[in-house]
Amino acid sequence: MQVLTKRYPKNCLLTVMDRYSATVRNMEQVVMIPSLLRDVQLSGHGGQIQDGAPDLYKYFTMLKAIQVDMDHGLLPREEWQAKVSGSEDEAENDAAETEEAKEERVSGELYLEAQFHLHFSSLHHILTHLTLKAKEVTRKYQEITGQAM
User: Fold this and answer.
1) Which of 14, 58, 90, 141 is the most exposed place for a label (fewest CB within 10 A)?
2) pTM for the full model?
3) Which among 14-28, 43-57, 74-88, 108-122 has the top mean pLDDT?
4) Are 55 and 43 in contact (CB under 8 A)?
5) Is 5 helix (H, G, I), strand (E, B) or coil?
6) Angle at which helices 13-30 and 56-72 pack, to 10 degrees?
């Protein structure tokens, strides 16, 4: 496992981001054959398999994609919307954007600081959760291949 080289306060967002990136890099180094993760379910709390949960391969690819976004930045908004929405009508997108812009302006004027804290704490929570998922994928792969520590 890679060691964090930068020193930030424990609950600093940069620390959480560095921890996530290091954990995903470690997962990539350990998982040499990602296809072994197909159709393997991640056990939930108490060791029970969660119905309808994605397999470990989907977690593996999602965790890597998020790390790429974090390390290299996001796609421009237009490219991201095209990638996510695929074949939606442009009229729907324009209407949604204008409505979204109005909502953002009103709520931004009233609750800017509160929104910042909400999104900041949500991002912190999500990155911590994804870090744990990356560790679980790595651990499960090591169990499958007999490399368990």
Assistant:
1) 90
2) 0.64
3) 14-28
4) no
5) coil
6) 130
